[in-house]
Write a structure and sequence with these properties.
It is elongated and about 45 Å long. Strand 5 and strand 6 form a beta hairpin. About 20% of the residues lie in helices and about 30% in strands. It is built from four helices and nine strands; from the N terminus they run H-E-H-H-H-E-E-E-E-E-E-E-E. The chain has a seven-stranded antiparallel sheet with strand order 7-6-5-4-1-8-9. A two-stranded antiparallel ribbon has the order 2-3. Helix 2 packs across helix 3. The protein starts with 12 loop residues before the first helix and ends in a 5-residue tail after the last strand. The N terminus and C terminus are likely disordered.
Amino acid sequence: MYRPSCTFTSGSFWQAVNSSGAALISSSAVVQEGLYTSVEACTEATGDPSSCRNAFAEAQKQAADAAPKYASREACEKDYKPEQCVQQHTSAGTSFIGPMMMGFFMSQMLSNRGGLAPQAPASAPAYQDKNAGWARPAPGGTGGLNTASGIGAGKAGLAPVTSEPNRAVTASRGGFGNTSARRSSSGSYGG
């Protein structure tokens, strides 16, 4: 009996998206994902202002909890531009210095011939370091929490991203075990 070699565990969706370019979600699905610097750039690339607004709002809710956490502004400024390093509070009320969210990720199923109900797009905050590198919360990551005070490891809870900002990448899937039948990109080259 054939058994697929790919299994998804809790939090592995973004790993699959980043490593393979698209996630196998269901039989006959078209998935679109991207890194966006604004709702406007997302809307231009995807043509879906409602999903872009919702993904941005969800990423904002996650931003402080997922952000790299530093004990001082000076420590933050080693990795991020000075104007990005601000005092923030987690949902639990812990105060820390960390970079502001500079963009967001959105992944959504565009077509679904498998009969599943439409789902809200998946989203996550994105942070840009002072070398113009992008990162997002690592699946199962802690946002840099590694001490009793909740402050510590900086970028340790982030995963680097190589996606070009403000481009929507679409992958068509023909079924479980099949490879991507079509990939295309759309959107502007913004920065």
